[in-house]
Amino acid sequence: MCAAEKNGEGLGRGDRLPRMVTPPPGPEARRLAELLDRYEAPGVNTLPAAFTADGSAGSKREASATPAILWREARGANVVDVDGNRYIDLTAGFGVAAVGHRHPRVVAAARRQAGVLLHALGDVHAHPLRIEVARRLGEWAPVDDPRVYFAVSGADAVEIALKTAALATGKSGVLCFDPGYHGLTLGALSVTSRPIFRQPFEDRLAPRTVHRLAYGCPATTIEQALGSGAIGAAIVEPVVGREGVLLPPRGWLTDLAALCRRHGVLFIADEVFTGFGRTGQRFAVDHEGVRPDLLCCGKALAGGLPLAATIGRAEVMEGWRTDGEALHTATHLANPVACACACAVLDLLEDGELARRARALGALLARRLARFNEFSVVSEVRGRGLLWGIEVDHRDTAYAWTGAALQQGLLVLAGGPNATVLQLCPPLTITHRQLLAALDVLTITAPGAPRRSRR
Known about the structure:
Elements lengths: L2 H4 L20 H13 L31 E5 L2 E4 L4 E4 L2 H4 L8 H11 L13 H13 L5 E6 L2 H16 L3 E6 L7 H6 L3 H4 L11 E5 L4 H8 L4 E6 L15 H11 L3 E5 L23 E4 L10 E6 H4 L18 H14 L3 H18 L7 E7 L2 E6 L2 H13 L2 E2 L1 E3 L5 E4 L7 H14 L10
Parallel strand pairs: 3-13, 5-6, 5-7, 7-8, 8-9
Antiparallel strand pairs: 1-2, 2-3, 4-10, 9-10, 11-12, 12-15, 14-15
């Protein structure tokens, strides 16, 4: 590894192409992953999937999964691992780095605020930036007469939305759609679709209050469910993210929102993944002009720091008013440094240029990825803006593809209930050159695909 790479100078503005110095996971990644596995609880560690510390086969994850690396540094659309390999990132850190990893304006905002106030007093004593972020989120969100309830994660924002609906309507029933991912805390877990997440905790959930329908189902089916009168809220991802990148049928969200209004049911849009320009609009509901009663956002909001929010109509939010202690809160609610970073992110998104880039690059992806339908392992390609999914025939195919791409310096994840969908979710700042290079890597590493560029 050259001195420039070791000192992080090889990232430039995060607009570089891959540079591989050792096959991943390299020796340092393996060493550190073993240490992490020793100290961290199982189930969330980064132990390399197909390797042990000595490089032999067999590990604590199934061998077909992509070997894990450890990140050392990131900027723009680039990530450098602990062994000095430089990658193009098509994950954006689960969508968090929408404005790019370590954006200079976000970093500058964090540094300034860290020198002034690192922590306030949660729900008791606020700070000026909390007011500013709440005001700006209200202006941004497609919610009438908005009020903001801050959260510390996307799942927390969903919890707040579900609790808000219960307080406002007096009804415990919730309509959700499968597939859908809303988080793994108990309330959010109850409306998350994948059974493997729910089954170990079923006795602590409330399955009798949750009504499940297929995502994109006919309006008549929704009407029948809402007609029971037991449902107080319907929650949906305007574009399904983690569970396979699924687009709703044209007009479906509009119909859903209208049915909710007709039956006095609160419409909750989970935009944790899709918000802040990801799909080419500020929020994914904007593609149909839908104005939800409650909107959950997070991930990209603070550019890398944990901050989320539920934005709801003032009338609906009145249910939280109390003379006593807050009914839902957190110690780090609206952390000052996270709020400073959120202001920087909203500044960067304000003129709409990044959303326009997402639309333009999304059009490029649509053209280029359409050719992937010629590959025998690909069953469908779908997406919008800079959120795309390539569905393949089997999880082993997906793991083989993401693993081969990793060896060529491309970070891409397999998602969906059966891990059969390659998810393309790059930073909105990814350059045209980087995106073309990433597509070339996907082309030459596709199992059974022609071994040549399709540019």
